[in-house]
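Open question from group meeting: does this chain pack into something compact, or does most of it stay loose? Before anyone orders reagents, we agreed to write out a predicted structure and look at it together. Recording both the input and the output here so the notebook holds the full record.
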Amino acid sequence: MSLVKSGSLKASLPRLDLPLPILLVLLAVGLGLAGNLDAGQVLETFRAGFGRALGDFALILLPSFLIAANMSRRPLPTIGGWVRLISPFSAAGMICHVTAYAALAPIAGKHRLSMAMAAYAGFMLLVPAGPLIVGAALGVDDPGLLLIGLLLLPPVWLAGEIWLRLFRSTEATAAADGAAEGASTPGQWRALAPFGVLAVMLTLGWSLDLAAWPVLDFFTRPKGALLAAALWSYLDTPAEHRREGLESSIRRTAGLLVVVGAASAVGAMATTVVPVAGYLPGASGQAALLIGLFAIAALMKMLQGSSMATFAAVAPLVLPLVEHMQISPIAAVYAICLGAFVAILPNDSYYWVVRGDALEGTGDGAAIRRLAGASICQAFTGLGLLLLFLYLGLV
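Structure tokens returned:
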């Protein structure tokens, strides 16, 4: 009996079940060697690429995750169906739609599924979540990110809501319908205060020219406003929980910085080996480039499931393309964010969180149709609006 037939050969082969950062590092080095770069050039290009975006990401992720950790330790206001209005801002403030869903589900009652899609949209479209994370890799430091996200949010959320209503499940959802909807207390609204600080600072930066006052100018830009919101969150947290929040933010930031650095190294290596400028069209094809960025982000999201990893990996990879095409940086940011909507599938942790709660008792096929369908509707609605904004000169 041959080794193949007996299965011995198959059993002896190593499994390449490698984490995304390792795959990206190997890809970066492999591209350099395949492109006939010498050892010194490979190392130099890798070092330059790896460190290119880390400073910006550290300034964003550390304070963002500190706010998220502190918010997750506070009770959130109980407002029944109106929970759908605060869930996008909670998901953005917590930098995690999964955490926001878990925090709000007990007070959402029969509105859990709708709230889940609203939280998903907020995480993807609102500062300080998706747009600020992607913007860090693309070098975008524009308070206008906040405004465009707020303009996109209502129609994008509505698209998902319409899909859910058209394909309403007829199966049991007792767990989603049985939650109590009590009254909120004024103190519970303090959990959202950091997001209010962030919104106020960014609005001031967008509407006023504060260049003559460097300190004010810094704290009304996205990174400075985020630091101000994180400081508010830290001081507003009971002293005995502050250390926990800091340690949590450091742990969550460290892993993502490795992904960001490795993805940046791949982008730098690829553009060193391949003459990007010689293969790309001129700057006139901005709409086509936005669709291309959308497609790249959607493909990455479907392949590996994690929205955060998609943000961290895609933007550094496509940065050379965006720079060459000279497209609106804000438009590029949102093209990537909208691509990451596609789609809530079983390889996404959010699918299982919502599947086991709001869709408990629903068949697997129905759950996929509802969650994946709603997220795809949200993605293409947002893309259509973004292209309209580009045509109107809003981005």
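Observations to bring back to the group:
The chain has a mean pLDDT of 78.
The first helix runs from residue 3 to 6.
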